[in-house]
Design brief:
- Keywords: Dioxygenase, Endoplasmic reticulum, Glycoprotein, Iron, Metal-binding, Oxidoreductase, Vitamin C.
- By secondary structure, the protein is of the alpha+beta class.
- The chain has three domains: about 110 residues, Serine Threonine Protein Phosphatase 5, Tetratricopeptide repeat (Alpha Horseshoe); about 70 residues; about 190 residues, q2cbj1_9rhob like domain (Jelly Rolls).
- About 40% of the residues lie in helices and about 15% in strands.
- The strands form four sheets. Strands 1-2-13-9-16-7-6-3 form an eight-stranded antiparallel beta sheet, covered by helices on one side.
- It is globular.
C-alpha cells in the first residue's frame, strides 16, 4: 500500500486508480473515493466509472445518481462500454435520467463492444420474440456472453440447448456445458420449458420500450383485486432470476409486527435472495420494470427484488404484505406502504405450492412465467385485511418465486 501511495503521489492517473482499487479491497472507502475522483478528474475512464459506481450505490456517502450519471457520460464519450450499460440501468428507472431512445442506443453500443451484461440483456430481449431470426439472434448473443465468461448466460444457453428453444435440441452440448458450469460452482436449474411470450414489433430490433406495453391481464378477484398474467416472463427471464439468486440464498425472515426487526419464524420456511442495487444489471432491471408496469406503477416505487425458493414441505402461512407502522418507520416511510405486490412463478412445481386468497376463496396454481398482481391497500390507502394470502406447502419438487413489493410512492433512489 505504501508503494502504491508513493506512486500515486506523483500525479499519475493510472497509479491513483490502482491505489483506489487497493483501498476498496481494504474497505477504506472514503479514501478510495477521493483517489478515484482524482484519477477521474485527470481523464481516466475506468476511474470515472468506479467513482460513478461509488456515488451511485452510496459506498462512501449518500447515493447520488445524478452525479454518477455525469461521470458515466464522460466515460461513455471516451468509448467505455461499461459506462453505457450502467447509464442504461439508471435510465430504466426514469428518475435520474430520462427513459428514452438513448437506452436502446447505449445498450446497442455495449453489445457491439461485447460487454457481457449488455449481451445478456439483449439476448433475453430477443428471446421474448417468436420469430425464428430473433430466436437465432438470442442464441448468438448468449454464446458471445458465455464465451466471455458470463456464467448466467452460459446457464441460459445450456437450458436452451437441452430443450431445443430457438435451436435444435442438443443434449450432448447441453451436458458438456453443464459439466463446465458445475465444475465452477453453478447449480442445476429446475427443468421446464416455455414458448416465447410473443413480443410484437419487427424482428432484429433492439427496442427495450417493449417492456412498457401493458400485458393482457385476467382479473380473478375484484375484492381484493387479484389479476393473473400468463406467459408474463419468458423461460430465459425465469432462469435469469433463479441463476442470479442461487449463490445468495439464505433463510427467509419476517418483520416483527411491533419492533419491525426481521427474524426467522415458522410462518415462513422458504429461502430467499434479495437483490441490492449493486447486484443488478440491465437484464434484471428490465424484468423488474416489466413487473412494476404490470402493477400500474414505475420501477422506483419498488422495493428490492426478492427471489424465493420453497423446498418440499415449505410454505408461507397466511399473511398480509402491507407493513406495520414500526417497520414503515424503519424503512423509508416517505415511500408509504406496499400498495401492490407482483409475484412471478419461475418454474414448474410438481405438486402443491399454490397461492391462496382465503377471503375471496381464490387459489392460483403456479405455472412458470405466470404473474399474479394484487392490491394490499384500499383505494384510500388504508390496509386491506382481506388481502390475506398464503403460499401453500410444496408437496413435490420445488417452487421458485420472484416478488416485488411496490410502495405508494418512490422508494428507490433511481
Amino acid at each position: 500500500m505504501d508503494a502504491l501511495q508513493a506512486a500515486a503521489g506523483t500525479g499519475s492517473a493510472e497509479d491513483a486508480f490502482r491505489l483506489a482499487l487497493a483501498l476498496v479491497d481494504a474497505q477504506r472507502m472514503d479514501e478510495a473515493q477521493r483517489w478515484h475522483l482524482r484519477a477521474a478528474e485527470a481523464g481516466h475512464p475506468p476511474a470515472q466509472i468506479e467513482y460513478a459506481r461509488m456515488r451511485l450505490y452510496g459506498m462512501a456517502g449518500p447515493v447520488a445518481p445524478e452525479t454518477a450519471a455525469q461521470w458515466l457520460q464522460r466515460a461513455e464519450q471516451a468509448g467505455h462500454p461499461a459506462a453505457s450499460e450502467l447509464l442504461t440501468n439508471i435510465a430504466l428507472g426514469g428518475a435520474a435520467l430520462p427513459r428514452d431512445a438513448r437506452i436502446n442506443e447505449r445498450l446497442h453500443r455495449a453489445v457491439q463492444a461485447d460487454f457481457q451484461p449488455a449481451l445478456l440483456a439483449a439476448a433475453i430481449h430477443f428471446g421474448r420474440k417468436p420469430q425464428a431470426e430473433d430466436q437465432a439472434l438470442c442464441m448468438q448473443l448468449l454464446q458471445r456472453a458465455a464465451a466471455r465468461g458470463n456464467a448466467v448466460a452460459a446457464v441460459l444457453l445450456a437450458e436452451r440447448l437441452a430443450h431445443g428453444e430457438g435451436c435444435e435440441a442438443d443434449a450432448d452440448a447441453a451436458a458438456d456445458l453443464w459439466t463446465q458450469l458445475e465444475a465452477n460452482g453453478a447449480s442445476r436449474l429446475p427443468d421446464f420449458t416455455l414458448p416465447p411470450p410473443g413480443e410484437p414489433g419487427p424482428p432484429r430490433q433492439l427496442a427495450l420500450e417493449d417492456a412498457l406495453r401493458p400485458p393482457q391481464a385476467q382479473t380473478v378477484s375484484a375484492m381484493p383485486r387479484v389479476a393473473v398474467i400468463d406467459r408474463f416472463f419468458s423461460a430465459d427471464e425465469c432462469r435469469l432470476f433463479i441463476a442470479s439468486a442461487q449463490p445468495h440464498l439464505h433463510a427467509s425472515q419476517t418483520a416483527d409486527p411491533v419492533t419491525g426487526v426481521p427474524y426467522t419464524l415458522p410462518v415462513r420456511t422458504s429461502s430467499e435472495a434479495s437483490f441490492d442495487p449493486v447486484m443488478e444489471n440491465s437484464a434484471l432491471r428490465m424484468a423488474q420494470l416489466r413487473m412494476t408496469h404490470a402493477a400500474g406503477f414505475d420501477l422506483p416505487n419498488a422495493e428490492q427484488l426478492t427471489v424465493l425458493r420453497y423446498a418440499p414441505g415449505q410454505q408461507y402461512r397466511p399473511h398480509r404484505d402491507y407493513l406495520p407502522a414500526a417497520t414503515l418507520q424503519m424503512d423509508r416511510p416517505h415511500a408509504g406502504n406496499r400498495a401492490r405486490t407482483t409475484i412471478v412463478y419461475l418454474n414448474a412445481v410438481e405438486a402443491g405450492g399454490a397461492t391462496e386468497f382465503p377471503v375471496p376463496g381464490l387459489r392460483v396454481e403456479p405455472m412458470p412465467g405466470r404473474a399474479v398482481v394484487f392490491d394490499n391497500l384500499f383505494a384510500d390507502g388504508r390496509p386491506d385485511p382481506d388481502s390475506l394470502h398464503a403460499g401453500t406447502p410444496v408437496e413435490r419438487g420445488e417452487k421458485w418465486l420472484a416478488t416485488l413489493w411496490i410502495r405508494q410512492r418512490r422508494y428507490r433512489h433511481w
